[in-house]
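Entry 14. Ran structure prediction on the chain below.
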Amino acid sequence: MKEILSCFKCSNDIMNSILVVDDEQPVCDMIKDMLESEGYEITSSLSADKALSFFKESPHDLVITDMVMPETTGIDLIMRVREIAPKTKILAISGGGGINGRFDYLAVAELLGAQSILKKPFTMSDLRSRVKDILAA
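Output, structure tokens:
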């Protein structure tokens, strides 16, 4: 299983790097493939712990993270990213499930400073638009 794939985008001479984190392989691959087709530099991970290691080595312009994952949640990841690089932009995604029942993880992500949220399932058009808007801000 290949967790890191990269391609490069130069838009107005600025390279945009994005870290995609989702424990569901098909979701992670779908997001990665779509954003690579747009020309962004993508690092992907199936776990928040591994993603954090990637982020410590090389901070990214944007982190797209699922909120409900085993072991380390998206909430934990957002807090750690904020400690390392407070200006990093964050897009939180979630299907609305919860580890201990129903809990609005996306609302918590916003309180922790996520620039945007997307509820699963979302369209590729919605994702593309959010990523573009977040990186342009």
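The chain has one domain: 10-136. Will compare against last week's run tomorrow.
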